[in-house]
Amino acid sequence: KPWTLADFEIGKPLGKGKFGRVYLAREVKSKYIVALKVIFKEQIEKYKIHHQLRREMEIQTSLSHPNILGLYGWFHDDDRIFLILEYAHGGELYGLLKKNGHLTEKQAATYIASLSQALAYCHGKCVIHRDIKPENLLLDHEGRLKIADFGWSVQSSNKRKTMCGTLDYLAPEMVENRDHDYAVDNWTLGILCYEFLYGNPPFEAESQKDTFKRILKIDLTFPTTPNVSAEAKNLISQLLVKDPSKRLSIDKIMQHPWIVKNADPKGVCLN
Ligand SMILES: O=C(Cc1cc(-c2ccc3c(-c4nc5ccccc5[nH]4)n[nH]c3c2)n[nH]1)Nc1cccc(F)c1
Q: pTM for the whole thing?
């Protein structure tokens, strides 16, 4: 039977997501705690995001992974759409990062390993996230990482695989583009790893123009404090590579000595 708003008691606002606000909510009968995202239909009309919303819902309902925030279901009334999302008790990873200034190497390695596993899972299902940033990363009650926002993910057509490896028909920019898309998430892992360990992203600059220049130049420098291990810097340097095809692949990330040595296999790392 379809859910209605009457099935939930609404609590405090948890944040403003894209196109809507998210509230703490409790399902009345089961007392189960969820995050209820409210999206106004007029916003969907105004921004013409029907197809994107539908795609996100299809993507999110099709994904089930311990490091991807669950979408349990949805319902609507005359002017709003409600998404029943998993509640992450630990809130935004960003908060932890800002509170502590930077994460320990064990925390950073654990979260990079969790992200890598979640991305390997997504790429296996031809989903490219493309918008991973600390604000979209949540923590559950055990400190386990949950990727929350599929704001710009795309269900990439897996034509190449179904063409069983014959690339003959694909234009070079098509092939390059596809690799580039997948490897964009690997690049982001490098940015995040740096940000987890130093407290801010590597190519920060006064203006967007300068940031773009620094990114295109791979103007990567490692501050002397906090003191970060050579292995960590090695992993970052193998991810922040201009040529997408030369970035460390996700399974190579999982085998990297820094990850093997520091990541908590249970993905929680209560330090
Ligand atoms: O909009 C989102 C992602 C999303 C998730 C959330 C979100 C935000 C916050 C939370 C929280 C949460 N727990 C907290 C604890 C303390 C402080 C803050 C907290 N926020 N738990 N679950 C959440 C989920 N906002 N936006 N997905 C989406 C959008 C359209 C279609 C679709 F299928 C999915």
A: 0.87
Residue 44 Cβ contacting ligand 1 at under 6 Å? no
pLDDT tens profile 110-129: 999 999 999 999 888 877 76
* ipTM score: 0.95
Check residue 163 and give its pLDDT: 29
* pLDDT value for 168: 45
- The residue annotated as part of the active site, out of 131, 179, 181, 219, is 131
The strand pair at 33-40 and 20-27 is best described as: antiparallel
CB of 63 closer than 6 angstroms to any ligand 1 atom: no
The reply to whether 79 belongs to the active site is no
CB-ligand 1 contact for 149 (6 Å cutoff): yes
